[in-house]
Amino acid sequence: xxxxxxxxxxxxxxxxxxxxxxxxxxxxxxxxxxxxxxxxxxxxxxxxxxxxxxxxxxxxxxxxxxxxxxxxxxxxxxxxxxxxxxxxxxxxxxxxxxxxxxxxxxxxxxxxxxxxxxxxxxxxxxxxxxxxxxxxxxxxxxxxxxxxxxxxxxxxxxxxxxxxxxxxxxxxxxxxxxx
Length: 179
Ligand SMILES: O=P(O)(O)OC[C@H]1O[C@H](OP(=O)(O)OP(=O)(O)O)[C@H](O)[C@@H]1O
Ligand code: HPA
Ligand SMILES: [Mg+2]
Fold this sequence. Notes:
Elements lengths: L4 E6 L1 H18 L5 E7 L3 H8 L6 E9 L12 E4 L9 E9 L3 H11 L5 E9 L12 E5 L5 E2 L15 E4 L1 H4 L2
Parallel strand pairs: 2-3, 2-5, 5-6, 6-7
Antiparallel strand pairs: 1-9, 3-4, 8-9
Helix pairs in contact: 1-2
The structure holds 1-O-pyrophosphono-5-O-phosphono-alpha-D-ribofuranose, hypoxanthine and magnesium ion.
């Protein structure tokens, strides 16, 4: 992996500690509420698996798959639903789980989309936030780490569908995508 990793941005240990804190906070905020945790595939897979095990209240989970990045490092801006929720979400409290908020276009689309289905509330938990690249003013309700404007891989995040399995968050070497 040294061939593609420029440097580690967030270590496994830092992620572990942060996920525990986020799980505690969410458990407190949603106690006595009917919470549906919605993971956004594929990027959120790893974070979702860790986060739900740090939540101490009863929850249900579901998944959506959307794609806007395709093969590259730039968002196309057009969000496509590749897999939708299994059930209706009317009057339910929804927590969207994302790996990263970058331009915000994916999240903006998802929040509007789920609100329009009559959810009681729609909030967002992301492990990474890259606010310097926003094209639309959205902010996560829960955030693990604010990161600089660099393309990152690992902990679910890919470059051209690769490197999702790396257990930390690392900066991708520029020469990998500037060939
Ligand atoms: O804030 P944005 O600029 O919209 O970027 C964030 C989104 O882009 C990535 O998904 P992607 O479309 O690459 O699909 P993937 O999760 O399958 O990698 C990431 O997982 C977020 O969903
Ligand atoms: O930095 C990133 N890495 C991987 N996928 C992404 N999707 C948005 N930003 C990123
Ligand atoms: Mg991607």
